[in-house]
Specification:
Blueprint (H helix, E strand, L loop, with lengths): L4 E3 L7 H5 L29 E5 L3 H12 L4 E9 L2 H11 L4 H10 L8 H7 L4 H5 L7 H6 L5 E13 L4 H4 L2 E3 L6 E3 L3 H6 L3 E8 H17 L17
Helix pairs in contact: 3-4
Length: 239
């Protein structure tokens, strides 16, 4: 697919992964051999994280579904908890504050935990105009802070993909992802592992996208083809 990929952590220190082309670096050459997945005493399944270009992560998801079948694949969910903006929106509407006012208040705050609302209101210079009228909104601030870290819904996990047999969607409670592209298990990654399901961790990493973009720009502007996965890369100018 032409997508940059790299094994992460102990997965990159496995000679087995290197032999299977999961990890590009040879751990023996760098004295990094670490076969943590081969112990006979290990009861859990291997947890091998794979980094891909963040800009193309969903393409990888689509390819997984194409390869294994849409009835056998689902993405992992995760609890979406309240932070400042959502807490202020929901609390303000519950208190009967006009929607346009609630929208203005919520957008005034930076992305921060709900428990820091009153602290930010007192300390941040950009919130001074709002702080001057804070008393007119009564218990809004205190009640919004009380929602901190409480579940607001289920969001799509940034990397977990579940693989099973063709009865997967009949055995587990699923719902569409917010965008509607994929079935999403109504369970987080810990629950999924407790159920004994096979989970792939496909992590979208911006650095991988940046590296792929840099290689493409060098090829476009200078004609050189660079393979970042070969340490002794020699650049050659194209005709």
């Amino acid at each position: 697919m032409g997508i940059r990929v790299a094994a992460r952590g102990s997965g990159a220190g496995s000679m087995v992964n290197h032999s299977l082309f999961v990890a590009s670096a040879n751990p023996l050459e760098h004295s990094l051999l670490f076969e943590r997945f081969l112990s006979e005493r290990r009861a859990s399944l291997p947890d091998i994280d794979i980094d891909v270009e963040s800009a193309r992560r969903l393409e990888v998801y689509d390819r997984i579904i194409e390869r294994f079948g849409k009835e056998r694949v689902a993405v992992t969910g995760m609890p979406e908890t309240y932070r400042a903006r959502h807490a202020l929106r929901d609390t303000g509407l519950a208190l009967g504050v006009a929607p346009q006012v609630v929208d203005r208040i919520a957008k005034s705050f930076p992305h921060l935990p709900a428990c820091d609302i009153r602290g930010a209101l007192a300390e941040l210079p950009e919130l001074k105009p709002l702080a001057a009228e804070a008393a007119s909104y009564g218990p809004l601030w205190e009640l919004a802070e009380g929602l901190d870290r409480l579940p607001r819904g289920i969001a799509m996990h940034p990397c977990g993909v579940i693989l099973s047999n063709s009865t997967l969607l009949d055995r587990l409670p699923v719902q569409p992802t917010p965008g509607g592209q994929y079935p999403m298990v109504q369970a987080d990654k810990e629950d999924v592992e407790d159920l004994g399901l096979l989970k792939l961790d496909v992590l979208g990493v911006r650095m991988q996208s940046a590296m792929a973009h840099a290689v493409a720009e060098i090829r476009r502007t200078d004609g050189r083809q660079i393979d970042l996965d070969v340490p002794s890369t020699t650049s050659s100018r194209s005709n």
